[in-house]
Amino acid sequence: GDSVTQMEGPVTLSEEAFLTINCTYTATGYPSLFWYVQYPGEGLQLLLKATKADDKGSNKGFEATYRKETTSFHLEKGSVQVSDSAVYFCALSHGSSNTGKLIFGQGTTLQVKP
Amino acid sequence: DAGITQSPRYKITETGRQVTLMCHQTWSHSYMFWYRQDLGHGLRLIYYSAAADITDKGEVPDGYVVSRSKTENFPLTLESATRSQTSVYFCASSEFWTNTGELFFGEGSRLTVL
Fold first, then answer.
1. pLDDT for residue A97 is more than 90
2. Are A100 and B50 in contact (CB < 8 Å)?
3. Is B107 an 8 Å CB contact of chain A?
């Protein structure tokens, strides 16, 4: 079945460091891909998305490119801030099934130190 | 306020007791979802609903019951709670799915089963 695999955390970085969180997926067809972020004590919120191969999603300085050839959707940010400390989830959906369901990875905790 | 609200936010119960987690959304979204979040597993779908009176199982439905008599409410009931159901539960909603979509999450309900 469909699945999403994220790099193990936690990831600890200093402020202004470069961030990469790896995400790979297994799916049939052409899923849409998402990154969600969960700040402490809150629910998840959409960070960015990409709906087809080679699309780049971006928001708040974060970027991710939908790579079908490597089945990847890695999250990157050039310069992280303490306020970026959160749990990041990669997810996919199958639009063709039209059920609205998302399949999530296990989440990667990011801690940014001043 | 508009949005999606869950109650209770925190609940401690004992094995064998019935527990109901409430979810209410004010957007009139068609789809609603219940996920559980566990360390190492990310978010796993329990049940979802495409509209009032239409529900379907997700990945981990055993031990849970849902209903959706009104579009805005989607309660989740644990009929006889077990320790393995200790988790953080998230309710989410979305508009009718096309090929992409964004889920809007509540703040979560932390359930502890003793």
1. no
2. yes
3. yes
